[in-house]
Amino acid sequence: MESFIAAVTVFVLAVFVGFEVIRKVPPTLHTPLTSGSNAISGITVLGAIVLAGTESPLATVLGFLAVVFATVNVVGGFALTHRMLKMFKSRD
Amino acid sequence: MPPDVVNLAYLVAAVCFILAFKGLAHPRTAVRGNLIGAFGMLLAIVVTLLDKHILSYTAIFAGMLVGGTIGAALAARVKMTTMPEMVALLNGFGGAASVLIAGGALVVPDSVSDAPPLQMAVATVTSGLIGAVTFFGSLVAFSKLASFKWVRDVRFKGQQLLNGVLFVSAILTAVQVVRDPETLAWYWILVGVASLLGVLLVIPIGGANMPIVITLLNSYSGLAAAATGFVLNNNGLIIAGSLVGASGVILTQIMCKAMNQSMTDVIFGTAAVAGGASADEVYGGRVKSTSAEEVAMLFDGVRRVVIVPGYGLAVSQAQHAIRDLANLLESRGVEVEYGIHPVAGRMPGHMNVLLAEANIPYEQVREMDDVNPTFAQTDVAIVIGANDVVNPVAREPEGNPIAGMPILDVDKARTCVIIKRSLSPGFAGIPNPLFAAPNALMLFGDGKKALLDLVAALKAQ
C-alpha cells in the first residue's frame, strides 16, 4: 500500500507539472508538441525491455513486439519533432 | 545496477522530459528542448538495459533495430501535409505497446514488477483497456485522415447503446482479470472488447472533428503509459505518461473551445444542430466571381494583406505558392501576415508547420485573437481553402450548427478574396453568407493553381 501511495503521489504531481508547463506552449508549436509527446510516450520501451529480457518465451515475444512499437515512437517521435522544429525560422 | 541508481536515472530522465516541454514555449528554445528530451530517453534506456534483471538481449536488440529503422524511415519521409496521419499512427503505437507490456506482465509478474498484486492487477486492466481503445481508435483515425476508400463515417441507430454495452462488458471482464490474473485468456478477451470499442468510438466522427480525436487519443496514449508504469512500479513511465496525458487534455480543451463544442458532444457525436438559411437564400445571385487578373489589380496601392489558410491549403499543397505571393507583395512594400484559426487543418498547429515549411517566419503567423482586431485596418484578406472558420453566422447566438464558435473576422477587411473550388459547404454543412457579402470576391479553382495564376498576373503588371 505504501508504494502504491508513493506512485499515486508521483502521478498526481506530474499531472500538475504537465498542465503548468504545457499551458505555456504557443499554438504555433502545437503540432511539434503532439509529435514530441508521442516520442515521450515511447517511455513504455523501458517496460518492453524488461519484459523482452525475461526467461518466458511468451513474455519475450510480447516484449519484442512492444519494443518494436515503443522504439518507433521514440525514434520516429524525436526525429520528426526535430525535423519540424528546425523549419521554424525567425524573421531575421 | 543497484535499484537506487536506476531510479535516480529515471528522475533525471523525467526532468529532461519536463525541460523538453518547457523548451516548446518558444520556437527559439524548442529544438534544444527536444534534444534534451531525447537525451533523457537515451539515459533511461541505457540504464534499463544495464539493469540486472535482464537475462537475454537478443529480443531487445532485434526489436530496437526493427522499431528504430521504421521510426527513422517514417520521420525522414513523411510529408508535412500528412502530419496528422503520422501523429495518429504514433498515438496508436503507444497504445499497442502498453497493451503488450501489461499482457506480458501477467505472464511473468514476479520478474518484471515489485508492485503489490492488487495494484498490478488493476493497473494491468487499465493499461489494456485504454491501450486497446487507443490503438484501434487511432487506426480508424489514421485510415480516415489518409482517406482510405474503405473507411467512412458510420453512424447507426443504437450505436451509443452498443458502446455502453461494450463498456460494461469490458469493465466486467476487467473485474474477472483482477480476480483471476492466472487465467490469461480473460485479459485478451478484455483487449478484444476494448478494441471493438475503440473502433466504434471513432468510426462515427467526421473530418472537422479530427483535431479533437487526435488530441484525445494522444492523451489516452499517455494515460496508458502511466497505467503501465503502475503495473511495473516504474516512476519513469508514470511521470512521462502523465505529462503526455496532460498535454493531450490541454490541447483537447483548446480544440473544443475553438469549435464551441463540449468534449462529450464530440465523443458521442451529439453536436449536430440543424437550422439556418438555405444556399439559395444566402447566395441568390449575389456572389461575385473574379479572375486572377482582377485580383492582381486589387493589390495596387494596398498596405496590408492578411492570408487565412484552411485545410484546403494542405490538400492542394499550396504552402510554397503562398510564400511566392507573399514575397512578391512584400517586395512592393505590402505588409503580409497570416491569421490561423485554432482548428484550421486536421490537427492543432498544422497550418503553422506548413507555413514554416515554406520558410515563412513565425512572427508573421498570428493567432486568431491577435489578428482579429487588425482586420479593420486590412486592405485585402485572402482566404484559402477555409470555410466554416470564416462564416459570419457563427456570431449569431443560436439557430445554426456553428453558432457561438469563434471565427476569423475576414469580412471586416476592405476586400475579401476567397479562393475555393466551388460554393460547396464546409464540414458544418451550411452556406456561408461571407461569399455573398458586398466586399467579397470568389476566385474559383484549386488553391495552388489559383495562387500561381495570381503570382503570374502580378508579375505581368
- Approximate helicity band of chain A: over 70%
- Rg of chain B is 25 Å
Large-scale geometry of chain B: elongated
Overall shape of chain A: it is flat
Strand tally of chain B is: 6
- The ordered H/E elements of chain B are HHHHHHHHHHHHHEHHEHEHEEEH
Determine the fraction of residues in helical runs of chain B and give it as a percent range.
55-70%
Largest protein-protein interface: A-B, 81 and 118 residues
Q: Which structural class matches the secondary elements of chain B?
A: alpha/beta
Mean pLDDT over the full residue set of chain B: 91
Overall domain count of chain B? 2
Q: Please give the order of strands in the largest beta sheet of chain B.
A: 3-2-1-4-5-6
**Whole-Å distance between the termini of chain A?**
57 Å
Describe the sheet with the most strands of chain B.
Answer: 6 strands, parallel
Fold and architecture overview:
The complex is a heterodimer of chains A (92) and B (461). Chain A has helices at 2-22, 30-41, 45-52, 57-87. Chain A has a domain at 27-87. In chain A, helix 2 (30-41) runs antiparallel to helix 4 (57-87) and helix 3 (45-52) runs antiparallel to helix 4 (57-87). In chain A, 66% of the residues are buried. Chain A is built from four helices and no strands. The radius of gyration of chain A is 17 Å and the shape is flat. In chain A, 78% of the residues lie in helices and 0% in strands. Chain A is mainly alpha-helical. By secondary structure, chain B is an alpha/beta fold. Chain B has two domains: 78-268, no CATH class; 279-460, Rossmann fold, CATH 3.40.50.1220. Chain B contains 18 helices and six strands. Chain B has helices spanning 3-23, 27-49, 58-77, 83-107, 109-112, 117-145, 159-179, 184-202, 210-232, 235-258, 263-268, 279-283, 292-298, 311-315, 319-331, 350-357, 368-371, 447-460; strands at residues 304-309, 335-340, 365-367, 380-384, 415-420, 440-444. Chain B has a six-stranded parallel beta sheet with strand order 3-2-1-4-5-6. In chain B, helix 1 (3-23) packs parallel to helix 10 and helix 4 runs antiparallel to helix 6. Chain B is elongated. The mean pLDDT of chain B is 91.
